[in-house]
Amino acid sequence: MRVLAASPARRLAVLLGLALSLAAATASRAQTWTEVGDAGDLPINAQSTAGLGGLLTLSGTLSSAADVDMYCIQTSNMVDVPGYPVLTLTCWSDVSPNVWVFDANGMGISTNESCAGGFKTLTTTTLYPFTAYYVAVSYSGVAAVSTDGPMWLAATGERSPDGPGAASAVTGWAGSALVTGPNPYQLGFNFTGYCESPTPAVRQGWGSLKIRYGN
Fold first, then answer.
1. Signal sequence span per UniProt (predicted)?
2. Which one, of 167, 189, 152, 151, lies nearest residue 72 by Cα?
C-alpha cells in the first residue's frame, strides 16, 4: 500500500490539533493542587504551588495531631465587593480543621474558625488582589504563634490577628488538637492562581514532527 506524504495544510492541521490538545490538557491540570509529600508548617518550608491558569482547589492530609500544612498561593484580580469569598475550607463544625493566611513575610492576615454552610470562609474583606499569601491548615486547637505569643485569640468569625503576638511574624504552632474531620481536607479558591509557573517540559522538535507526519 502506498503511503502518501502529508500536505502542508494537513501538517498545519495536525500541529494545530496537537497545540489545542496540549492547551486543553494544561487547562485541566491547572485547576487543582494536591499536597506533595508533607507540606511544611512555616513560610521557610511551605509548599509552593506551581502551575498555569487559575487555582480552584487544593487537597491535602493532616498526618498527625500536630501536623500543620502551609502552601504558597497568589491572588489575581478580584471583584471589588467586601465579603466576597476568596478562600474556603470544607468543614463539618466549628471544631473542624482551621484555615490561616499569612503574607509573604509571615505576618498574620486572616483566619476564620466559624463553620457556616459547610465552609470556613475568608473573603475580600481581609484578602487583596495580586498578592502572594501563605495558606495554612491545622487541626482546631492548634494555633499560630509568634515570638510574642498567640497571633489570634480563640474566637469565631473572620478576623485579622488580635492576639498578643499579632505584631510579629509566625514562628510556630501551639495548642492541643481536636482531631476531627474532614481529613483529608479541601480548600476552594476564587481569584487565585499558583505561586509559580511549572518547570517547562522539553518540547517536541520540528524534526521529529516532520518524521512523524511526513514532508
1. 1-30
2. 189
